[in-house]
Amino acid sequence: MHDDDVTPEARGLGTRGPELGLALLLLLIAVLVITDSLRVGIGWADDGPRSGYFPFYIGLLLAAASASILVGQLLRGRREREVFATREQLGLVFAVLLPTLVYVGAIALLGIYLASAGLIAWFMWRHGRYGWRLTLPVSVGVPLVFFLVFERWFLVPLPKGPIERLLGF
């Protein structure tokens, strides 16, 4: 059996679904930008353009591009045989996406420094195949450097969790 005889579903995810999904997402974002720009004003004031002037036109361009992709995909139908990503490639994407989502949620619970230490440790150990002798100092050291740079040097507080507040960070 040749690669051309295999359906996109058998080889992986086809391009139609992701393109339709992204076009819809970008169209929704464009509508949000346009409506908010109208709320703050898109005209000219005495001192120049109002706050929504440039975002309004950017939103229009984004809406036009999104609508063009959406219509093109709907008219093309299911006859397109291109593969967006194979199952193995999607597995690699989810291997990064899922820990990143956990990290975002952990920031709210643990604070950015502890969550970052955990994320760095996970990626070094799991994907980099580094031993704990290197993983531990790097995963603790990088957030520590960021703490010193942002909190002490630039005086910019980053999100902290209850454990970090308990430790006095």
Unreliable segments of 5+ consecutive residues? none
User: What is Rg?
Assistant: 23 Å
How much helical structure, as a percent, in the residues? over 70%
Q: Structural class per helix/strand content?
A: mainly alpha
List the helices and strands in order.
HEHEEHEHHHH
Question: Tally the helices: what do you get?
Answer: 7
What does the average pLDDT come to?
90
Instruction: Count every beta strand, where a strand is a DSSP E run of 2 or more residues.
Output: 4
* Beta-strand content estimate: 5-15%
Shape: flat
The strand order across the widest sheet is 1-4
First and last CA, distance: 62 Å
Largest sheet: 2 strands, antiparallel
Number of domains: 2
What is the element layout, followed by pairings?
Blueprint: H1 8-11, E1 12-14, H2 16-40, E2 44-45, E3 48-49, H3 53-76, E4 83-86, H4 87-110, H5 112-127, H6 132-153, H7 162-167
Task: Describe the protein's architecture and organization.
- By secondary structure, the protein is mainly α.
- The chain folds into two domains: 13-84; 86-168, no CATH class.
- 72% of the residues lie in helices and 7% in strands.
- It contains seven helices and four strands, in the order αβαββαβαααα.
- The strands form two sheets. A two-stranded antiparallel sheet has the order 1-4. The chain has a two-stranded antiparallel ribbon with strand order 2-3.
- The protein is flat.
- Residues 23-159 form the DUF1468 domain.
- InterPro entries: DUF1468 (IPR009936).
- Keywords: Membrane, Transmembrane, Transmembrane helix.
